[in-house]
């Protein structure tokens, strides 16, 4: 998959949610994980992070939105149920993105929403667990930007398999066989 991405949360207070979100970030191949204004009692590696993700991806803990330092070109994508948020199935994921989710029993702060380049929502009837929401967002990114067969329009697997990329040898503009390209 091209590009890079990170996932994080603002104002988390429960270790189990932090661990679940970190584990999903690690499983989907995130390049780093972050928290903003997280509860001070949260440890760096909760027991619910069974993949022990801090040993595999950097963890940044910023005290406030103003302290966040994302890489140049990285677009911040807020995940929040707002009127003007883009429905996740219609969203075009940026190649360089940091996805930020809100706290348990709360929403992203007005400061965070103002900093976001995009705001998306998962089309559910009500809010879902932050770790579950993170896994859904990351799955959607993986599905949208990964190289997979086209989804079938009917039940079952794809009708046509995506052809594997084949790298050939050098090609001469004159049509001659180039020594060492496997054609000699």
Automatic annotation (TrEMBL):
GO terms for molecular function: RNA binding; RNA methyltransferase activity. Keywords: Methyltransferase, Transferase. Residues 161-184 are annotated as: Disordered. Residues 7-139 form the tRNA/rRNA methyltransferase SpoU type domain. The keyword Cell cycle does not apply. Pfam families: SpoU_methylase (PF00588). One of its GO terms (biological process) is methylation. This is RNA methyltransferase. It comes from Roseibium limicola. The lineage of its organism: Bacteria, Pseudomonadati, Pseudomonadota, Alphaproteobacteria, Hyphomicrobiales.
């Amino acid at each position: 998959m091209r590009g890079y991405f990170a996932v994080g949360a603002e104002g988390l207070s429960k270790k189990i949610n932090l661990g679940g979100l970190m584990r999903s970030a690690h499983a989907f191949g995130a390049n780093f994980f972050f928290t903003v204004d997280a509860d001070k009692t949260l440890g760096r590696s909760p027991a619910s992070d069974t993949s022990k993700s801090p040993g595999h991806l950097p963890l940044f803990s910023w005290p406030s939105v103003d302290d966040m330092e994302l890489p140049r070109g990285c677009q911040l994508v807020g995940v929040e149920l707002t009127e003007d948020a883009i429905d996740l199935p219609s969203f075009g994921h940026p190649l360089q993105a940091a996805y930020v989710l809100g706290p348990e029993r709360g929403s992203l702060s007005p400061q965070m929403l103002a900093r976001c380049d995009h705001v998306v929502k998962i089309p559910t009837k009500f809010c879902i667990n932050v770790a579950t929401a993170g896994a859904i967002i990351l799955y959607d990114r993986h599905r949208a930007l990964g190289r997979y067969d086209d989804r079938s329009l009917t039940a079952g697997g794809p009708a046509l398999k995506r052809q594997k990329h084949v790298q050939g040898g050098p090609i001469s503009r004159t049509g001659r066989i180039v020594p060492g390209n496997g054609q000699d």
